[in-house]
Write a structure and sequence with these properties.
It contains 1 helix and 8 strands; from the N terminus they run E-E-E-E-E-E-E-E-H. The strands form 2 sheets. The chain has a 4-stranded mixed beta sheet with strand order 1-2-3-4, with no helix packed on it. Strands 5-6-7-8 form a 4-stranded antiparallel beta sheet, with no helix packed on it. A hairpin with a 4-residue loop joins strand 2 and strand 3. The longest helix is centred in the last third of the chain and has 30 residues. The mean pLDDT is 85. It binds zinc ion.
Length: 120
């Protein structure tokens, strides 16, 4: 299993080490090099709408998962307790995304039906 170390910094260094997650609390951002080894810098802003950082005093987790769709490697993984947990495959993830979209639609049409019934 691949593990990550971490470092709390004020500013992100120019030369980033691979396998290290840099966390800048003043800037509300975490940065690491893509865990697939492609050296792409992955920037994860920390905010309620973006990523949450969980630090338990010994290890770090990031939620939600890291999905590097915009990079050539298209890697997708979670960082949980300093370890990298790979998503099954990109196709699986897309299928999951589509499924949740569909169920959202279903929910919405159910809601509409319910609402129009009540109107009558
Ligand atoms: Zn990569």
């Amino acid at each position: 299993m691949k593990t990550l170390s971490y470092e709390f910094v004020e500013y992100i260094p120019d030369q980033m080490e691979e396998g290290k997650l840099y966390v800048s609390i003043p800037n509300c951002v975490a940065i690491h090099k893509c865990c697939c080894g492609c050296h792409t810098e992955v920037v994860t802003p920390l905010s309620p709408d973006a990523w949450r950082l969980i630090f338990d005093g010994e290890s770090i987790s990031l939620y939600p998962s890291i999905g590097n769709w915009q990079f050539a490697c298209k890697s997708h993984y979670w960082i949980k307790n300093n370890t990298v947990e790979w998503a099954k495959s990109w196709e699986d993830t897309m299928a999951e995304k589509n499924r949740s979209k569909k169920s959202n639609k279903k929910m919405f049409s159910k809601f509409l039906k319910h609402f129009s019934k009540r109107k009558k």
